[in-house]
From TrEMBL:
The keyword Oxidoreductase applies. This is Oxidoreductase. Keywords: Oxidoreductase. The lineage of its organism: Bacteria, Bacillati, Actinomycetota, Actinomycetes, Propionibacteriales. The keyword Cell membrane does not apply. InterPro entries: NAD(P)-bd_dom_sf (IPR036291), Sc_DH/Rdtase_CS (IPR020904), SDR_fam (IPR002347). Pfam families: adh_short. Transmembrane segments: none annotated. Belongs to the short-chain dehydrogenases/reductases (SDR) family.
Length: 246
């Protein structure tokens, strides 16, 4: 039997790389997606196995069909889709240009929807064959904590939770497990703007990867439509002075 295969967007850094590392350690084959080919290749070298395939693509553009086809050409099966790539421009709403708005909506939400659409045929095959396949959408604690100056980002992350919960209702009877992971602040290159004392209190990316491993290990009768991962105390409002972004 070929090894189980995962497609991890944003797999060249931060949370995505931690998830890809965990999967490789667990014996999976993995495709990692990002825009920068050199960064992808450096991540693949670090992962150090031929079971890693890289696909350079800008997910803010309409590339989902090509990305999934490329993954399937290389690995021949898809058991887990991790919609992790995402970004947000933090700042006053009136300063966000229409172009920036499109990029944020397309990357954080539209690409996740399109990748699910393109991934469903092989995920259905995997669920029929093995009893389970998985979709993990990386949302954020901002979906519910909604800090100021992060309105569009928070809205896309809240939409990912609703998308995941509705998909769970649609697909779980087929054995397809859908989860929205909602971490608080995670120590990654994406949060490089934070001072050291704040970074020291953030969630390690490896803990998010461990949450994915937990999801993969549930019995076929246990579904987890949403999973929050939080820092100690009052959460992201305590860690960051969001008003300073105004
Ligand atoms: N860090 C946090 O505190 C935190 C908390 C909650 C949720 N999240 C969410 O977790 C996810 C990962 O965050 P992170 O902090 O690990 O990010 P990160 O360190 O900035 O890494 C982002 C990854 O996504 C890729 N990427 C960015 N834009 C892309 C695009 N347009 N097309 C394809 N790939 C793209 C990057 O590669 P390239 O730059 O080469 O494209 C990189 O591999 C995001 O969805 C984020 O919203 C993060």
């Amino acid at each position: 039997m070929s090894t189980r295969a995962a497609l991890v967007t944003g797999g060249s850094a931060g949370i995505g790389l931690a998830i890809a590392t965990m999967l490789v350690d667990e014996g999976w084959s993995v495709t990692i997606v990002g825009r920068d080919r050199d960064k992808l290749q450096a991540a693949a070298d670090r992962l150090g196995t031929e079971r890693v395939h890289v696909v350079a693509a800008n997910l803010a553009e309409d590339v989902a069909e090509d990305v999934v086809a490329d993954h399937l050409r290389h690995h021949g099966r898809l058991d887990l889709l991790v919609n992790n790539a995402g970004a947000g421009l933090i700042g006053p709403i009136q300063l966000k240009s229409a172009k920036e708005l499109d990029v944020e909506l397309n990357l954080n939400l539209r690409s996740a929807v399109r990748l699910v659409q393109e991934s469903l045929p092989p995920l259905r095959v995997a669920a029929l064959r093995d009893g389970a396949s998985w979709i993990v959408n990386v949302s954020s604690m901002t979906a519910t904590e909604t800090p100021p100056y992060a309105s569009v980002y928070s809205a896309t992350k809240a939409a990912l939770v609703a998308f995941s919960r509705s998909l769970h209702a649609e697909l779980s009877s087929e054995g397809i497990h859908v989860t929205a992971l909602a971490p608080g602040l995670v120590d990654t290159p994406g949060t490089g703007w934070a001072p050291d004392d704040v970074r020291d209190r953030m969630i390690p990316a490896e803990d998010v990867a461990a949450a994915v491993l937990f999801l993969l290990g549930r019995s076929p009768r246990c579904f987890v439509p949403a999973l929050p991962l939080v820092t100690a105390g009052a959460g992201m409002h305590e860690l960051v002075d969001w008003r300073s972004f105004g």
